[in-house]
Amino acid sequence: MILVNENFLKLKAGYLFPEISRRVFAFSKANPDAPIIKLGIGDVTEPLAPAVVEAMHKAVDEMATHSGLHGYGPEQGYAFLREAIAESDFKSRGANIAVDEIFISDGAKCDTGNMQEIFGIDNVVAVTDPVYPVYVDTNVMAGRTGDNDGKGRYANIIYMPCTAQNNFVPELPTKPVDMIYLCFPNNPTGAVATKEQLKKWVHYAIENNAVILYDAAYEAFIRDDSIPHSIYEIEGARKVAIEFRSFSKTAGFTGVRCGFTVVPKELVAYTKDGKAVELNPIWNRRHCTKFNGVSYITQKGAVAVYSPKGKKQVQDTINLYMSNADAMRAALTAQGYQVFGGEHAPYIWLKTPEGVDSWSFFDTLLNKANVVCTPGAGFGAAGEGYVRLSAFNNPENVEEAMDRISKI
Ligand SMILES: *Cc1c(COP(=O)(O)O)cnc(C)c1O
Q1: Residue ranges, the chain, pLDDT below 50
Q2: Could you tell me if the CB of 246 is within 6 A of ligand 1?
Q3: Which whole-number Å values give the CA distances from 317 to 49, 220, 228, 310, 320, in the listed order?
C-alpha cells in the first residue's frame, strides 16, 4: 500500500490569497464597473530594464549559433555572474564572500524552502510572526513540526512576535532554538534591522550553535546607508548565517526567475555526537543533485543588472516604487492612519482603526475605495489589526487610491 507523506496533511489550506481573490471576484461581479486598484500583491509592475533586455536578446542570438550554444551550465551558476555578485553585492559593502560560496538558483522562494533539507529533523525552528509562509510550510512538509492548532500555528515552532512595541524586530528567543528565519527588509511589515540588532542575533547564534537563515530579498530598497544590506556586514556572521537574495524585486525578475544563496565556508552544523560538519559542500551536493542550473539567457540578463547602465536603470525603477511608498506614507499619515515600513521596503504596514480587524478593514477598502490590500492576519496572529499595502504600482494609481481612501 502506497503511503502518503502525512506531514502534508498538517498544512493549513492556502487561505490568504485565495480568500482575497474570492472576495475581489464577488465584489467585481456585483459591481462590474468598479475601477479596482490592486495594492495587495507582492509583484512588480514595471518592465525589465533595457540593459537586461538587451543582454538577454544577445544571449538568445548566441544560442542560435553552433559556436554560441550553451547547453548545461555549471549547476552553481556561471562564473561571470558569481564574480559580479561577490564584488558588487558583498565586497563593496565590506563583506568578504568568495565566488564558491555563491549558488545561483531560480529564486529565493525555492532556496528558502529547500535549505531546511540539509538540517536534522529534530532542530527547533523559530520564525517571526507575521512571517513569509514559505519558511513555515516547508518545515511542516519536512516533519519538523507538530499539528496545526486551527488558527495557523504549528506545535514545535517558536513564533517570535513582531509588533510596534519592538519596532517589528523580534526579541531573542527565551527557549533554545536551532534554525532562525529572519527577513529584512521585511515582508510584510517593511521593517528593517539595524547593525546593532543584527549583531545580537549573530551573537545569539554563535553562543547557541544555531543557524540564521537570512532572507535579504528586499535589500535593494534600503535607502539609509547605515542599515546593513547583508548579514555578512556583521562580524562573525560567516560562522552562523546563510543568506538568500533574489533578482525578483531588485530587478523585476519575478517572471524571469533568478536568485542566489550564500553558504559561507566557515558555517558548520553538528552531528549527534557533536562533530562539526561544513555546510558549504553539503549544500553544493544538494544543489548539484537536484538542480541543473539557471538558463544562460537568464544569467546574462542578471549580470547586466551589475553593468553601469543596468545599475542606473534598476535604481530608477526602485526609486519609482519608493516614491510611491513615500506618497502612501504621507497621504495615509495625513489622514490619521498609523503606518509603518515603506521607508526601506516596498510595503506599508498600516494599523487598522481601533476595534477594526484586518479582514473588516480589507472589506472597507474594497467596498468604499475599490482598493485591494492584504490583511495582516493572513501572515500570522501578530498581523491581526494591520493590512499590508504594496508600493508596486504606477504613481497615478497610487495617487488615485490614496484619494479614494481619504473619502471613506
Ligand atoms: C518576493 C520574495 C522573495 C523572492 O522570491 P523569488 O522566488 O526569488 O521570486 C523571497 N522572500 C520574500 C520574503 C519575498 O517576499
Answers
A1: none
A2: yes
A3: 8, 11, 21, 11, 5
